[in-house]
Specification:
alpha/beta; 6-stranded parallel β-sheet; two-stranded antiparallel sheet; 8 strands; globular
Length: 604
C-alpha cells in the first residue's frame, strides 16, 4: 500500500480522535434550569413582531451587555452590531446581522445570569437569520441581482451554521485557548482526511486506468458547469432521484456542447492539464458544498427536512446509472446490425406474455374516497364514478339524484367540484369547505376519466370539458326547478385540469346564461394561470407552482416575473419542476391545502 496514503490515513484518525476529546472537554453545558426571561426573549425575537420582542427583553439585559436594543427598519437590533465577515457582504444584510447579534447577546446574557439556554434556541436564531437574509434579497427588482444576493445569503447563513455547530449550538463566547486548540485540530483532521481521500482516489484511478477513459480538461469543466447549472437557477426542492436525473441531463448537455467545440480547440496536456483538472475538481467540491447549503435552505423554507449525507450519494448513483445506460445504448447502436434479432425476440416474447395476462381496471375512486364517505359535520357529499356503458350526462344525473336524495338542494350553497383526470377531488378542499360552512354546504363531483391529468390534458381534453359541462348543467337545471326563494347558491370550483375544463365550459360561446346562474367560481392552480373574466371569480396559486407559472417559452425567453433565468437551462428546470410539483408539502409547488377555500366568494 502507498506509504503516503498510510501516513495520511493515520494522521486523520489521530487528529479526529483528538478533536473528539478536546471538543467534549471544552463543550459548555446548558443549564438544567435555563433563564426563563432570556429564553422567552429569544423565542419572541424569532417569532413575534419587533415591538413585542422589545417588551420581552429582560430588564437586566442593558446592565449585563452594556446597551439597550433599538427598533430600526422594522426590526429589533443591536445598534452596535454589524455583519462580522472576512469578506464584505451586501448592505441589504445589515439589519438582519444586527438582529442576529442581539439574539446572540441574549444567549450570552442567559449564560452570565446562570441559566445557559439549550442548543435549540441558537439554532432557531440562525434559522431566523437565514430567512431574514433571503427576505432582504427578495426586495431586489432584478432577477440577476436577486440571484447574486441569494448566493451571498446562502454563504453567510451557511458560515453561521457551521460556526454554531462548532460551538455545540450553545453560548457564542469569544475564542479561548481551548476552542482555538479544538478548531486547529479539527482543521488538521479535515486537511489530512482530504489528503487521504485524494491519495486513495488517485491510487484507485491508477488501478482502474485501463477501464476508465482518460479524463479531458474540457469534459471535466463541462461536468463542473453542468453540476452548477443543475442546482441554480431552481424553484422547487427535488428528491435525489429527480435531482440526479436533472444533473445528468444538464451535464450531458454541457458535454454535448463541448463535443461540438472540441475539434476547434487544441488538446491540453502535461502539467497544464493536471493543473486544470485539479481546478475542475476544486470547483466541483466547492459547488457541492454550496449546493448542499443552498438546497437545504430551499427545502427548509418549503417545510422539508434539510439534506442528509445520503442525498448526494443518491444523486451520484442516479447520474452514474444514467451514464451507464447511455453508454450501453451507444455501444448497442454501434453493433445494431448484430443485435436486431435478439431485440426483436425479446420484444415479441414480452408482447405474448403481456397479452396472456388478466387485464384489470385500476381503482377509479378519488384519493381517500372522501366524497364517498359521510361528512363528520353533516354536510352533503355526492360523487358519481365512471361506469361501463354510461355517458357523461347519465353520470351527472346520477350524481345530482344523489345530491337531491341526501338533502343537498336544501343547503344554502352547492359547490360543483370539477375533478382532475383520474377523478380526484382534493380532500383538503372538501374539508376546508365543511370547516368554513359546516353542514350548510353540499359538494358534488363526477369522474369523467381514469387517465392521469397530464394525459387527459394533452389527448382527451374534450372528455374533461364534456364531463364538466354535464355536471354544471345538471346541477343548474335541478336548482332551477326549485321556487325562486328556495334555490341554493351554486359555485364552481376546479383544481389543475379541473380548472381548465370548467373554464372552457364557462368561456364557450352561448355560456352567458350559465355564468349568470353561478354565484362564484374558484380556480386552484389553473394551468397557465388562466381566468374566465367573470364577476366573483378567484384564482388561488402558489408562487412556485410550475403548472401555473412555467411555460415552454422558458426555454428561450425570460418569464418576466423576476425569477432567475438562463436560456435552455431554465426550460430543463421547469420540466423537472413539473415532474416534482406534487411531491412537495402543502402550499408549495402544485399542492394546495384547505385554506384555499377562504377565496370562495359568497352571495349571501
Amino acid at each position: 500500500m502507498n506509504r503516503q496514503l498510510v501516513l495520511a490515513g493515520t494522521a486523520t484518525i489521530i487528529f479526529a480522535a483528538l478533536w473528539l476529546v478536546l471538543s467534549s472537554a471544552t463543550a459548555p453545558t446548558p443549564s438544567t434550569t435555563p433563564d426563563g426571561e432570556s429564553q422567552r426573549a429569544v423565542r419572541t425575537l424569532v417569532q413575534a413582531p419587533p415591538r413585542t420582542a422589545a417588551a420581552a427583553v429582560p430588564e437586566s439585559f442593558a446592565t449585563t451587555l452594556g446597551y439597550t436594543p433599538r427598533l430600526e427598519e422594522g426590526a429589533l437590533v443591536n445598534p452596535r452590531g454589524s455583519c462580522s465577515s472576512p469578506v464584505p457582504l451586501p448592505e441589504d444584510f445589515e439589519t438582519a446581522c444586527r438582529q442576529h447579534d442581539l439574539g446572540y447577546d441574549l444567549l450570552r446574557h442567559a449564560d452570565r445570569v446562570g441559566g445557559t439556554l439549550p442548543p435549540t434556541d441558537r439554532r432557531d436564531l440562525d434559522a431566523r437569520f437565514a430567512r431574514d437574509l433571503r427576505a432582504a434579497c427578495d426586495t431586489r427588482e432584478s432577477g440577476w441581482a436577486r440571484a447574486g444576493c441569494d448566493g451571498w445569503a446562502e454563504i453567510a447563513s451557511g458560515a453561521v451554521r457551521l460556526n454554531s455547530w462548532r460551538q455545540h449550538d450553545l453560548v457564542p463566547d469569544p475564542e479561548d485557548p481551548g476552542s482555538i486548540a479544538t478548531g486547529t485540530v479539527g482543521v488538521l483532521a479535515i486537511g489530512s482526511g482530504g489528503g487521504a481521500i485524494t491519495l486513495g482516489a488517485r491510487s484507485v484511478l491508477r488501478r482502474m486506468g485501463a477501464l476508465l477513459p482518460r479524463p479531458r480538461v474540457s469534459g471535466a469543466g463541462a461536468g463542473a458547469v453542468g453540476l452548477l447549472l443543475s442546482i441554480s437557477p431552481a424553484n422547487l426542492p427535488h428528491g435525489p432521484l429527480l435531482q440526479g436525473a436533472l444533473t445528468a441531463v444538464l451535464v450531458g448537455l454541457c458535454l454535448g456542447v463541448v463535443a461540438l467545440l472540441r475539434p476547434r480547440v487544441a488538446l491540453v496536456d502535461g502539467a497544464p492539464r493536471r493543473a486544470l483538472l485539479g481546478l475542475a475538481a476544486i470547483v466541483v467540491m466547492g459547488t457541492l458544498g454550496w449546493g448542499h447549503v443552498a438546497l437545504s435552505a430551499r427545502r427548509t423554507e418549503a417545510g422539508l427536512d434539510a439534506l442528509g449525507p445520503g442525498y448526494w450519494l443518491g444523486v451520484a448513483a442516479v447520474v452514474g446509472g444514467l451514464a451507464l445506460v447511455v453508454r450501453t445504448l451507444g455501444r448497442a447502436w454501434a453493433h445494431r446490425r448484430r443485435l436486431w434479432r435478439p431485440v426483436v425476440a425479446v420484444l415479441t416474447s414480452s408482447i405474448v406474455l403481456a397479452s396472456t395476462g388478466v387485464a384489470q381496471a385500476s381503482d377509479t375512486t378519488p384519493d381517500d374516497a372522501l366524497l364517498l364517505e359521510d361528512s363528520p359535520v353533516g354536510a352533503v357529499r355526492a360523487y358519481a364514478e365512471v361506469s361501463d356503458g354510461e355517458g357523461a350526462r347519465e353520470r351527472a344525473e346520477h350524481a345530482v339524484d344523489e345530491l337531491e336524495r341526501e338533502g343537498g338542494l336544501a343547503r344554502s350553497r352547492i359547490v360543483v367540484a370539477v375533478p382532475t383526470g383520474t377523478g380526484w377531488v382534493n380532500p383538503e378542499l372538501v374539508r376546508g369547505l365543511e370547516a368554513r360552512f359546516g353542514s350548510d354546504v353540499a359538494t358534488v363531483a363526477v369522474q369523467y376519466d381514469t387517465m392521469p391529468s397530464w394525459y387527459a390534458y394533452l389527448f382527451e381534453r374534450d372528455r374533461s370539458e364534456e364531463g364538466a359541462r354535464a355536471i354544471i348543467d345538471a346541477v343548474l337545471d335541478r336548482v332551477g326547478r326549485l321556487p325562486a326563494g328556495q334555490r341554493p347558491d351554486v359555485h364552481v370550483q376546479g383544481e389543475s385540469l379541473g380548472a381548465s375544463a370548467a373554464q372552457a365550459v364557462l368561456s364557450r360561446p352561448g355560456a352567458e346564461d350559465v355564468r349568470r346562474q353561478l354565484c362564484s367560481t374558484l380556480w386552484v392552480g389553473p394551468p397557465g394561470g388562466h381566468r374566465v373574466g367573470m364577476d366573483r371569480e378567484v384564482s388561488v396559486t402558489n408562487p412556485d407552482d410550475p403548472v401555473v407559472h412555467a411555460s415552454v417559452r422558458d426555454v428561450v425567453l425570460p418569464p418576466g416575473d423576476g425569477r432567475p433565468w438562463l436560456p435552455v437551462v431554465s426550460g430543463v428546470h421547469s420540466a423537472a419542476d413539473f415532474l416534482g410539483s406534487i411531491e412537495t408539502p402543502v402550499g408549495v409547488g402544485h399542492v394546495y391545502g384547505p385554506d384555499v377555500v377562504a377565496g370562495l366568494r359568497t352571495c349571501r
